[in-house]
Design brief:
single chain; about 300 residues; alpha/beta; Rossmann fold; 2 domains; five-stranded parallel β-sheet; 12 helices; about 15% strand; binds 3-phosphoglyceric acid
């Protein structure tokens, strides 16, 4: 049996070493494809793989078609919008993610972006503090809960909206529950996004929610670019000179936003939320272990299709 680790954005070396050990112990061969620039390299490498581990790499219908003996694909990370689940299911291929494994790294970046915004992108001049400000956590999964805990440490008042989490779980964590997404945005000066990119959420963050934010509003996006209505975001930034947008995922109109809004806008050059050695090790080792347990014992924990 053979497992392919295909990562356009490579894991840290310690993660790859650990994954190799897990597969070696199980007697499973490993192939490593890193920093590929041509998808044909992925088609070729996956042709004889029984298992595939990826990060944000697109596992499209074409990749699945090229993977003639694939049984499992594991997204080493949380969001699995890069996997064509319908194509996997049609071929009987199990798809998994590794929820929570890289969450701390993403949460720390979200707080870092908040500080960067509060301190005017580290430009000279008077900034503000996070203490005492209201933060809205838009979705209370692994990352959202960690952001809330870190923000509480800064003395922020934390609100949350998540229709899939019981209100009691939110209040037990010391957060204030918002009954609607509108209430979250209308209440909080800072909003940190932690929703996945789905057909329901794509382009869902736009003028209606952003223009309702209080004076000095700041949106932090360490989730996905697709959830933002980019034209409406640009319009709100023009209309509201007090608003800021800090993102780990550059929008399509990045050049315009950068030229127009100076320190009120910042995007990382490449998605780095989960780019820590710790997150790579946690997610990579979990992906390898889940793959081995599936191939050797049929364990389908964390199956998403
Ligand atoms: C995730 O969904 O887990 C994060 O967005 C991390 O993505 P990455 O593996 O491409 O860094």
């Amino acid at each position: 049996m053979k497992a392919l680790i295909a990562t356009e954005k490579p894991f840290a070396k310690e993660a790859v070493d650990g994954m190799n050990d897990i597969f070696a112990t199980a007697g499973i061969a490993v192939a490593l494809l890193e920093k590929y620039t041509d998808v044909q390299a992925l088609y070729d490498a996956v042709a004889d793989a029984d298992a595939l581990i990826v990060r944000s790499d697109k596992v499209s219908r074409e990749v699945i078609a090229a993977a003639r003996q694939l049984k499992i694909v594991v997204r080493a990370g949380a969001g699995y919008d890069n996997l064509d689940l319908a194509a996997c299911t049609a071929r009987g291929i199990t798809a998994m993610n590794t929820p929570g494994q890289n969450a701390n790294a993403v949460a720390e970046l979200a707080v870092g972006l908040m500080i960067y915004a509060a301190r005017n992108s580290f430009c000279p001049g008077t900034g503000s503090e996070l203490k005492g400000k209201k933060l809205g956590v838009h979705a209370c999964g692994h990352v959202g809960r960690l952001v809330a805990t870190l923000a509480q440490g800064f003395g922020m008042e934390v609100y949350a909206f998540d229709p899939f989490v019981p209100a009691s779980a939110i209040t037990n964590a010391g957060l204030r529950v918002c009954a609607s997404v509108e209430e979250l945005y209308a209440t909080c000066r800072y909003v940190s996004l932690h929703i996945p990119a789905t057909e329901q959420t794509k382009k869902s963050i736009g003028r209606r929610l952003l223009s309702a934010m209080p004076q000095g509003g700041c949106l932090i996006n360490t989730a996905r670019k697709e959830i933002i209505h980019e034209d409406e975001l640009e319009a709100v930034l023009r209309e509201r000179p007090d608003m800021k947008y800090m993102t780990d995922v550059a929008p399509a109109n990045h050049a315009i936003l950068q030229a127009s809004f100076g320190a009120r806008y910042f995007a990382t050059p490449k998605k780095i939320g989960a780019e820590t050695a710790e997150a790579n090790i946690n997610a990579g080792l979990a992906a390898a272990s889940q793959t081995v347990r599936f191939l050797t014992a049929g364990d389908t924990t964390f199956k998403v299709n």
